[in-house]
Amino acid sequence: MAKKYNLTQALLFLSHFMGDIHQPLHVGFTSDEGGNTIQLHWYRQKSNLHHVWDVLIIETAMKDFYDNSLEAMIEDIQRNITDIWSNDVPTWEKCSTDDLVCPVKYAQESISLACKWAYKDAEDGSVLEDDYFLSRLPIVEKQLAKGGVRLAAMLNRLFDPKESQTHYTEL
Prior knowledge:
single chain; mainly alpha; P1 Nuclease; 3-stranded mixed sheet; 7 helices; 3 strands; single-stranded DNA endodeoxyribonuclease activity
């Protein structure tokens, strides 16, 4: 008997996981639950480091630079993909001939960013303000761009008519 899979649900999971693996603290340290146990202040607001990277950097950028418009922020990131990051895009799209290796590469990139940027200067009880925000926002925006480009590339590979027969039989 053939197995039945819900393609919509599978695509939702894939897009969610692709986003998660590009958020550096989603591959952070288990000892602090990816920054969830690092209690601090984001400006005057109590928070934890994980929430800063999941939500607050983006919300602050939208408020400070994009007139609270998610659409404007997305347009800016898209513009960066086609302009200042355009030379990087081919390397973001290509992982290897073995798609199973790709998530490992993405996770390695993210943990490196977590160590270099997310955890740096973010100890328990610290107050994160403009210095932290302005130096981390470019990292967050580039990770959002990488995740989107890589998701698109993966979907293109999955749904390529030449490849689709192989992929669908694996599903």
